[in-house]
């Protein structure tokens, strides 16, 4: 089997497993490491100290696996339209789309395991591989761009012309020799919608996000108090924020996901804030079993709900 045949097998198996896009990058240092380094040095990672660790693998993902040659990058669409909101006037907290269904770490990892197993069966040649989904110390968006999955938009997310940006990324770093894809062109052009719409002004410049100001960071990653000057801008988001994706023209009509594991389940897509305020530890565990929302603990969710409730009170009752 030569590299081209192997690559074509990898891609066809990945697509059969339901991934929406698959691309191949060389296992090599990322192209824009200096901007990642600069981002870390400017303190934009906030209190996410783990991002400062394992700098050697972030710069060069090949360091994750001995004799790594290629990185298979997959994209899995999670976009779905929400059901119409209930007609009650109860103040609700919004949940970012990516956390509406089952925990994507499990779903994407499960499919990538199937991909590797299938390749072992079909290829009958020894190879090593390492699966990464979100938590590995690598810069996924840069690897995805190198693999031609899309370009990195001014909102720092990977964008695809047809798919938009509502998709998860996953990688298999492997010793297999595969044919690499070419990066795609950047289609942001003169658009600045995401930069202008961000409620907390988290973009000091295009392609640079100060995570310490981002609602996703504040509501999910940040422990302790959310600075009071940010409260009003957090609005009614209690878990993440989708604003810089919602305004993007490439997300105007994204395809619906076909992955049923991502179908919205309680408490998504929005939850009555009073309910969260009343949650016990048991309610929390029961409500969020198998959900990505468990990254925020109960105390954090209650903190977020209290801020959203105070914002709702300031705004007054919702119009009928
Ligand atoms: S997720 Fe929300 S808060 Fe964060 S950068 Fe995007 S628009 Fe701003
Ligand atoms: S909103 Fe505009 S500038 Fe921002 S990522 Fe989308 S196309 Fe690029």
Strand content: 5-15%
Largest sheet entry: 4 strands, antiparallel
The distinct ligands, each listed once, are: iron/sulfur cluster
SS field, number of helical segments: 12
Q: Say how many strands there are.
A: 9
Poorly predicted sequence stretches spanning 5 or more consecutive residues: none
Q: How large is the radius of gyration? A: 20 Å
Distance from N terminus to C terminus (CA atoms, Å) equals 65 Å
- The portion of residues assigned to helices is 25-40%
Spatial order of the strands in the main sheet?
1-2-7-4
Can you walk me through this structure?
With 320 residues, the protein is an alpha+beta fold. The chain is globular, with a radius of gyration of 20 Å. Helix 1 packs across helix 4 (104-123). The protein contains twelve helices and nine strands. Strands 1-2-7-4 form a four-stranded antiparallel beta sheet, sandwiched between helices. The mean pLDDT is 95. A hairpin with a 5-residue loop joins strand 5 (151-152) and strand 6 (158-159). Bound molecules: iron/sulfur cluster (2 copies). One iron/sulfur cluster binds at residues 198-200, 202, 209, 214-216, 241, 243-244. One iron/sulfur cluster is lined by residues 198-200, 202, 209, 214-216, 241, 243-244.
């Amino acid at each position: 089997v030569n590299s081209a045949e192997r690559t074509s097998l990898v891609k066809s198996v990945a697509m059969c497993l339901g991934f929406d896009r698959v691309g191949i990058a060389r296992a090599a240092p990322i192209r824009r490491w200096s901007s990642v380094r600069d981002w870390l040095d400017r303190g934009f990672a906030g209190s996410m100290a783990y991002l400062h660790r394992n700098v050697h693998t972030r710069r060069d993902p090949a360091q994750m696996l001995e004799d790594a040659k290629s990185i298979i990058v997959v994209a899995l669409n999670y976009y779905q339209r929400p059901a119409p909101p209930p007609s009650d006037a109860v103040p609700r907290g919004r949940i970012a789309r990516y956390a509406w269904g089952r925990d994507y770490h499990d779903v994407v990892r499960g499919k990538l395991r199937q991909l590797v197993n299938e390749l072992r069966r079909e290829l009958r040649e020894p190879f090593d591989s390492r699966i990464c989904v979100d938590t590995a110390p690598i810069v996924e968006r840069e690897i995805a761009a190198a693999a031609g999955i899309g370009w990195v938009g001014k909102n720092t997310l990977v964008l695809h012309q047809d798919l938009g940006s509502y998709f998860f990324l996953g990688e298999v770093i492997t010793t297999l020799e595969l044919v690499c894809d070419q990066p795609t062109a950047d289609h942001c052009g003169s658009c600045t919608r995401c930069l202008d719409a961000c409620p907390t002004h988290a973009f000091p410049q295009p392609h640079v996000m100060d995570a310490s100001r981002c609602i996703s960071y504040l509501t999910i990653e940040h422990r302790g108090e959310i600075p009071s000057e940010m409260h009003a801008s957090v609005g009614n988001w209690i878990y993440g924020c989708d604003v810089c994706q919602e305004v993007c023209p490439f997300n105007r009509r994204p395809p619906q996901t076909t992955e049923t594991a991502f179908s919205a389940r309680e408490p998504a897509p929005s939850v009555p804030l009073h309910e969260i305020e009343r949650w016990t530890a048991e309610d929390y565990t029961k409500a969020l079993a198998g959900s990505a929302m468990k990254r925020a603990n109960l105390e954090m969710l209650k903190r977020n709900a209290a801020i959203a409730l105070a914002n709702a009170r300031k705004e007054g009752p919702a119009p009928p």
